[in-house]
């Protein structure tokens, strides 16, 4: 395997001179640089990743922490990050929550893993850390946080208006005449979930609906959780014409359960999701959902981080308008009795 020592020997220069040419740092005469370049070409030398980091003080790696590696929510975000980094000549290293600990300890362990690997900067998707913990991380690593606000690094946090997302979800159902509404929420520990549910319930209350009488379940953002919540909803005897699910994966699980027990969507019950992930576009029926511009948020978060790490100047947007993607799972409210289970 060819090394930088071989390059220096063939070019007839010192190791330090060869290093300066390869790293692009330091003063070298044009004639000497040409000799080193010719030696590199003749030997087919390609510095290893470790060698580059020693020469330049940069690993050209960006670490990404996500809480879990499953489902359709994180995959598009990782695809955006990987594409943007490759276009900039950089690479992505991913860590995700594993082990027996809670979300906080898993996040700290995953982020420490990325720091230990020498990542130049971090993209963090977690709301489990405290302000002091984020302040400590920011003191030893450049980072941006997506989808959560931390007061200690406000300019490095990018987030959508989830309260507005909840309000828009309510307007969709109200606009179709729904007033008998069930809600399948995500974890109460997730601030963005709380924000969207608060916006949703406040908008219903403004339209005269007694939100204290709504059927509301807390689930875990998974299809399995949506399926179980839909089963509990049907088993409760609550008369509903629409279900708002706080993310698309739970909505897909609810659609699956309704299909199993013979509740037709949207003829008997409408289902509305949140996020507008790939699962929404290809569910059956195709899911009407609140669109959160995750790709745009991710790109702009990367732009912030690339400036922090490498001085790369790119425009940064901090406003991410929320909208509704209409598909097939929401229709006009049916008659009150129509959500009963079909007889077999």
Task: Note down, in words, how this protein is organized.
- The protein is α/β, with parallel strands linked by helices and 344 residues long.
- It has three domains: 4-56, 434 Repressor (Amino-terminal Domain); 61-159 and 294-320, Rossmann fold (3-Layer(aba) Sandwich); 162-287 and 327-339, Response regulator (Rossmann fold, 3-Layer(aba) Sandwich).
- It has 13 helices and eleven strands.
- It has helices at residues 4-11, 15-23, 30-43, 49-56, 74-87, 103-116, 131-140, 162-175, 191-206, 223-236, 248-261, 278-281, 294-310; strands at residues 61-66, 91-96, 121-124, 142-146, 157-158, 181-185, 215-218, 242-245, 270-275, 288-291, 323-325.
- The strands form two sheets. A six-stranded mixed β-sheet has the order 7-6-8-9-10-11, with helices on both faces.
- Helix 1 packs across helix 2, helix 1 packs across helix 3 (30-43) and helix 5 (74-87) runs parallel beside helix 13 (294-310).
- The radius of gyration is 26 Å and the shape is elongated.
